[in-house]
Design goal:
Rossmann fold; binds NADP nicotinamide-adenine-dinucleotide phosphate; glucose 1-dehydrogenase [NAD(P)+] activity; alpha/beta; 7 strands; about 260 residues; about 45% helix; seven-stranded parallel sheet; single chain
Length: about 260
């Protein structure tokens, strides 16, 4: 058996049925972790489990809405019941609702983003830290924030940006609160990534490619695998002294 960075460790990834979350879950599985994948819909999670198992890894799907405390607690409990510990958690589940100026955003869209992006990360952090601080080896948590947050502002994304700024601030505060419990907490803030979330209203993929070519310093958006690479670094022992950082991976957009 090859010994990899996460061999024998149990990892939890929220929003693992698609996009960045799926790429992170598959990468963790490929590097030896037993991966618990969470999200609201079963079908995409089943596909992520299949991809991990196909590559020789172990995975378990648990449906949960991260905005509900009992449901995210049940995901943590399932990880511990099945695999014996929770060593890594990636709080990735998030939604974007916007495209219009603040005054025109439906109130329901504000609440949905606040519930998933902020309350969801807060509740996940609570459930994860409460488990990890009981373990002799502690744990590592990576939250997915965004450059649309503390790093930059864009018209039509104000409510989303407020929620992602909260994720960056939650990360730094929680990191200080819990590093002496043996729980290391960091964030990754992606810029535009190759998932539907980075498409502007009415935009198709070729339009986005052209926009990236002309506006981003690198000339292209990030792949989900590139975000996963950053997440796995922060979750690994190589980042043992990295605490409360917010790692920007954005093709140079905020350089
Ligand atoms: N793509 C980008 O350009 C970009 C840039 C910066 C930051 N981000 C952030 O990266 C993360 C992943 O984005 P993505 O582009 O991969 O989007 P995505 O493909 O839409 O993935 C989001 C995932 O979160 C899950 N989810 C949504 N609400 C949930 C809830 N209440 N409880 C549990 N799971 C929930 C969704 O599954 P269900 O619907 O089945 O629950 C989905 O699988 C998000 O936090 C996003 O804000 C993305």
């Amino acid at each position: 058996m090859t010994i990899s960075r996460f061999t024998g460790r149990t990892a939890l990834v929220t929003g693992a049925g698609s996009g960045i979350g799926r790429a992170v879950a598959v990468a963790l599985g490929a590097e030896g972790a037993q991966v618990v994948v969470a999200g609201r819909r079963q079908e995409p999670l089943t596909e992520t489990v299949r991809l991990i198992e196909e590559a020789g890894g172990k995975a378990l799907a648990v449906t949960a809405d991260v905005a509900r405390a009992a449901e995210i607690q049940a995901v943590v409990d399932a990880a511990v019941d099945r695999f014996g510990s929770l060593d890594v958690a990636v709080n990735n589940a998030g939604v974007f609702r916007g495209g219009q100026p603040l005054a025109d955003l439906p109130e329901a869209d504000w609440h949905e983003q606040l519930d998933t992006n902020v309350t969801g990360v807060f509740l996940a952090l609570q459930a994860e830290v409460r488990q990890m601080r009981t373990q002799p080896t502690g744990g590592a948590i990576v939250n997915i924030a965004s450059t649309f947050g503390v790093h930059t502002r864009h018209p039509g994304a104000t409510a989303y940006a407020a929620t992602k700024a909260a994720v960056s601030v939650l990360t730094r505060g929680a990191a200080l609160d819990h590093i002496r419990d043996g729980v290391r907490i960091n964030a990754v803030s992606p810029g535009p990534v190759d998932t539907p979330m980075s498409l502007r209203p009415g935009e198709q993929e070729p339009d986005r490619t052209e926009r990236a070519r002309t506006t981003l310093p690198l000339g292209r958006i990030s792949t989900t695998q590139e975000i996963a690479t950053a997440v796995l670094y922060l979750a690994s022992d190589a980042a043992a002294s990295v605490v409360g950082t917010d790692l920007v991976v954005d093709s140079g957009a905020t350089a």
